[in-house]
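In full, the data:

***
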Amino acid sequence: MSPHDLAKDLDNLRKLSYFYYFSEAVNALILIAAVGYIAVTGFLYYLGGASLAVSLISGGPVEMANSLLDKALGAGPLFAGTVAVGSIFAIFAIAGVLFGHYTGKFQREQKHHTFCFVMAILTATSVPIGTAIGVPTIILLLREPVKKAFSDGDSVQSPPLDSGNLGLLSNLFVLYGLLSVAVSLISVLYVIAGVYGLTGNAGSTEQGSWFWPAQIIFSSLILVLSIGLSVCTILAGQFLKRKKAFVFCIITSVLISLFAPFGTILGIWSLFVLFSDPGRAAFRNNA
């Protein structure tokens, strides 16, 4: 293959890379919708917690339990289903944003041939638009001169990771984790309301007989998961500062990005830092 033909192939790859940025934008819209879905549900949950606090202050625990039964009967399963569905869509959207961004970036920079090839195969399975993008990309990536051009790109030294930005990110993770612990304690009100509802007059109704045990279990689960994620966020902040536990930091970043708006901003920012060439190199060299 002549240098002219190679240059043409690489130019075609660069043109195809912009379609991956379009895919990134579409997944970003899906992420916004999914996270917004979760955020609205979470807001209603914590707004209900504030209402329970008012009932507790004005009428005591039994009044709080009766208030919860009147206002939230059946909302527990709905809340759980909403968060579960929204989280699934959001996690896939986060993956789509990252993969779309880095596939386009690596194709333009002629780096990480295997990653680009795998993503082209996955893209080709999405008929018809993905096929129209993925198949030409696969053909171009299979050509030996193109493979060599990518190998030469992989050998380019990555710039060092900005320690100042990583330190700021680490501190924000710790701060977000501490604030999340405080917010998580709202679930304690739901647990208390469930206990008093089960042992008081509210538990004697036919609806209360099944509602209160479900309420206690569901609220306790939310409390444990929320505090657990908060602790993981604080630990991830410490690991980011020390450039340790790469996979743990990625998983924690994905999970906190489900919680808009601050968790989403912090989590996505962290993922872009971790998946960047300087980010991966810094963690790899510090292993």
Observations:
- The chain has one domain: 3-285.
- The two ends are 41 Å apart (CA to CA).
- The chain is about 85% helix and 0% strand.
- The chain has a mean pLDDT of 81.
